[in-house]
Amino acid sequence: MTATPEQQTTTQTALRPVGGGGVVVVERKQPRQSYGQGIAKGMGVVIRHFAKSFTTRIDDKSDQVGMFTVEYPEERMELPEAYRNMPILLYDDKTGQELCTSCFQCERICPPKVIHITQAKDPNTGKPVPAAEEFVIEYDSCMSCGLCHEVCPFDAIKMDHFFELSTHDHLSMDRNKAVLDRPISYYQAIAPNLWAAVEANAMKKLQNNIKRRPGNIGVAPHMIGKAQKALPTAGAGGARPAAGARTAAPVAAMGKNMPPEKVERLKSIRAANAAKRGGAVPSAEETLLAASAYTSATASPESGLHTAESDAGLAPSPATTPAPATGPVAAVGQNMAEDKKARLEAIRAAKRAQRGDE
Amino acid sequence: MLKTEELQINIGPQHPSTHGVFRLMATVDGETVVHLEPVFGYLHRNHEQLGEIWTYLQTITITDRLDYFNSMINEHGYCMTVEKLAGIEVPERAEYIRVIMSELSRILNHAAALGFWLQDMGSWGTTLMFGFRQREMIMDIFESVGGSRMMCNYMRFGGAARDITPNIVEQIQLFLEGFPQFIDDFERLMMDNEILLARSRNVGVLPKELAASYSVSGPVIRASGIPYDIRKAEPYSIYDRFTFDIPVGTVGDVYDRFLVRMEEMRQSHRILQQALEQLPQASGSYINQAYKAASKQQGLRPPAGEAYCRVESPKGELGYYIVSNGGNTAYRYGIRAPSLINLTALNDMCRGYKVADIVVILGSIDIVMGEVDR
Q: Most CB atoms within 10 A, among A111, A113, B111, B280?
């Protein structure tokens, strides 16, 4: 199809060639003399590719012949750092303090308007404080454009890499803060370079914010009462008054009829767990609890479990596999805080009773 | 003499060969097409109205959804128009990044379009997958620069969303290394195929004069023998720095369109090689820093006025027309979609040919309904 000089018809129209190059006339092929030669030639290419697909594997992009397919879900392609799927919120690993200050930049820029923020108010004065009381993103309508994470001045909202989001439970696609919150270490693991570029700025802004309003920084819901106690400057805060009350009286939350020695034992277990887990990705069961508490009003606990597994963005451990028929508490996970366990058990019992009545 | 009666056949709107929700009302006399009426509008999504409601920055995200096979070029054209309106300068490096992405998406589009066209002709699977594998490699590159395979949302006013790292440059270079082998394989696979020659030679002929009066553009008009390419006719961005040829056909039939697209992929490869060579010497940043903050915070308010910019999309001439009244949203936003204009010539291309040729001719125009209906 390359053009010989005499084929070049530079005088054809009013085209003014700018830069180099001109016009080439494509070369039309005539059918061959014996019918079937062209098809055989094409089949040669197919056969070569077919045979090579058993022996070689394409590893880099310059390879043309070989096995191209990736056997998902057994093997997965490595996602590039810049890959974006759905937005998540970041919080500090150690303290649980959220980077979000509810400045509403993301809500304003979101083209399909799926971000809904409720700003927290100081419980004493009633004035708005720079923390999000609730942060809902409708995942089902999100177009994954990534503008929210681009505009965020505090680098609090980032795009997740987790894409296996399909569910039967449509309502669970409205993700609230408890489900959206991820520790910084999680984002660092999926996008180390992108985080390194913004880390200094983000942490500086968070520290300034803490300095300015020590009591009012938003805290990731499942971190309340865990790493919080280790933090002298910021209490559980007025971000979520109900949660704050729970932190103030942790013993009461553990179960009303518990004997004191049991409460002591639970407290020590919980402290050990918190220390062990500090800085880790939120385990599946934590997100599970948040999700199941959130969806329990509308969905069955089983569907809540499925959602939570996908939320955690990790391979679910065997302990979290739903086993509603036998020992639901055991299925919830050994590392779970006792009050959460009790709360979940109560929800389950109510559901069982409901089903039994039917 | 037997009396024959004309019959109307309805193809679509959900027929797989119509490339989307598109309906064809064919009037046939026996096997011969007498008249053909394209009916579109099934995929209308109010794109232009949305562009007048959303801010300039937000509208970039939906230009991806116009012609979802070449989102980068759509963004390029839209950003150029807003830049012209607001008087934003684009740094040299950003221009190189844009050209690289545009040419990659041209290859992507042609590889997929030819695959689909051959599938329409009856070559199920194999040829489509040859094209799609190449498309997949380019989409991997797009994923690492823009974050998404198809809806890249990568270009910004004054440049691009982020810089291309040496890692990505290496990835593109690897792709370019393997590309000649792909095009040779693809050519050997199909070029001499007797069935392809029989079904495409002298089918769907669009004469030169008719093509010009329909104002079709892109490979369709070039196959008819008119070397009209915006990259040469009105060089935008930095296309005047590259050496490349414009392939033209002689007959204007379906076969010529196939050949023109094949040659265009080669020429895109040439441009990419030159662009990657010149990229390290390019001055400036990946985005005009002065406008980075303004466009991020949606503070971009171009002065009142109007602007029209056109780019050479793989389908043809893609034009954007924006009227601003000084606000942060467009007052009027219009698009000249190449797929729509090229589709209007379908009746004249199909008349006189057989019913089975309709699909082949339609495939050779390479339409995307997202762009036709908007």
A: B111
Q: Which amino acid is at B312?
A: E
Give the residue on A whose Cα is nearest the Cα of B233: A15
A178 closest CA partner among A59, A69, A289, A257: A289
For each of the domains in chain A, give its residue range(s) and CATH number, in order of start.
87-223 (3.30.70.3270), 247-357 (no CATH)
- Residues comprising chain B, all counted: 374
Lowest-pLDDT range, A166-175, A267-276, B310-319? A267-276
Q: Mapping DSSP to helix (H, G, I), strand (E, B) and coil, where does residue B132 land?
A: helix
* B245 with A24: Cβ contact below 8 A: yes
Q: Select the residue from A6, A12, A23 to test the B interface by mutation, using most B Cβ atoms within 10 A.
A: A23
Q: What is the pLDDT of residue B323?
A: 92
Q: A31: nearest CA in chain B?
A: B194
Q: Is residue A18 helix, strand or coil?
A: coil
Q: Which two tokens stand for residue A210?
A: 């803490």
pLDDT band at A259 (very low <50, low <70, confident <90, very high): low
C-alpha span between B321 and A266 (Å, rounded): 68
Number of Cβ within a 10 Å radius of residue A60 = 11
Report whether the peptide linkage leading into residue A73 is cis, meaning its omega lies within 30 degrees of zero.
yes
- Residue-wise pLDDT tens digits, B31-41: 888 888 888 88
